[in-house]
Write a structure and sequence with these properties.
By secondary structure, the chain is an alpha+beta fold. It folds into two domains: 116 residues, no CATH class; 111 residues, Roll (Chitinase A, domain 3). It contains six helices and seven strands; from the N terminus they run αααααβββββαββ. Strands 1, 2, 3, 4, 5, 6 and 7 form a seven-stranded antiparallel beta sheet that branches. The chain is elongated. The termini are far apart. The N terminus is likely disordered.
Length: 260
């Protein structure tokens, strides 16, 4: 909902975008302290039809998109904006500094106030999301335990054997060659390998739940593994991909073990 009264009423769109864009980043790496391997999916992005490099846009489209993104970002952060004041600020800035209704000091003060408000709202949103995700994760785990064949590892990790394995199990210092799919409890996939392009990962660099499960997994096996948030990415999550306190669901096929 966009309202017409707001203490930040003389901010230009360019300034607002600069503030709001600062928090938008997320790229998954390995299932480690940062995230899970992006693998082939990341490389494929460079040639995907419709990518920015293959689409020509004109100035009107860019300008319109800037307005849409600005309003959506403010709405997402529950910040009210005065649309008429935004337009007036843009026109005044284009006309030159002498036309501005605020001096540089006043603009900096307003921008600082906006940054403080954005940080406050970000913390509030994260707390709310963490609580929702925690409750949803606990409910998912309770339901998952009732499925046939599900076993617990004693540390909150649950798993179900899809295909048995007869080989050895890895140690934390080993590298493992795996096919895997990582998803949230609602089924949203955040990363996966392809069957013909498995990932080779050093087990010790994985998140705790990943390490604990794979250390018990024999080579050749395929497991579905449910990892509670304290053994995954906890309250920090992975910005833009995995929320705070998210329970994760992996399907992992352990193809090979490379001893260190």
């Amino acid at each position: 909902m966009i309202h017409t009264r707001n203490p930040f009423r003389f901010l230009s769109t360019a300034c607002m975008l600069a503030v709001l864009a600062g928090s938008a980043h997320a790229q998954l790496l390995a299932p480690s302290e940062a995230a899970v391997p992006a693998g082939p999916a990341a490389a494929a992005q460079t040639s995907r039809p419709g990518s920015p490099s293959s689409v020509q846009v004109n100035n009107e489209q860019i300008s319109y998109a800037t307005g849409v993104v600005t309003v959506r970002n403010f709405a997402k952060n529950k910040i009210e904006i005065d649309v008429e004041a935004v337009i007036r600020g843009m026109r005044d800035a284009l006309a030159g500094n002498k036309s501005l209704a605020m001096n540089d000091k006043e603009i900096r003060t307003a921008m600082n106030a906006l940054q403080v408000e954005l940080r406050r709202m970000d913390k509030l949103n994260k707390r709310e999301a963490a609580d929702v995700n925690n409750k949803r994760g606990l409910a998912f785990q309770a339901e998952y335990k009732q499925k046939p064949g599900v076993k617990a590892l004693g540390n909150g990790i649950l798993y179900r054997e899809i295909k048995p394995g007869t080989g050895p199990t890895p140690t934390e210092l080993d590298h493992v060659v795996v096919n895997y799919r990582g998803a949230l409890t609602d089924g949203t996939e955040f990363d996966a390998t392809h069957a013909d392009q498995p990932a080779t990962l050093r087990l010790v660099q994985g998140i705790m739940g990943w390490r604990e499960a794979l250390k018990r997994m024999p080579q050749g096996a395929t497991w579905e593994i449910v990892i509670p948030h304290p053994l995954a990415y906890g309250e920090r999550g992975v910005p833009g991909t995995i929320g705070p306190n998210e329970t994760l669901v992996f399907q992992v096929e352990l193809l090979d073990i490379k001893r260190s």
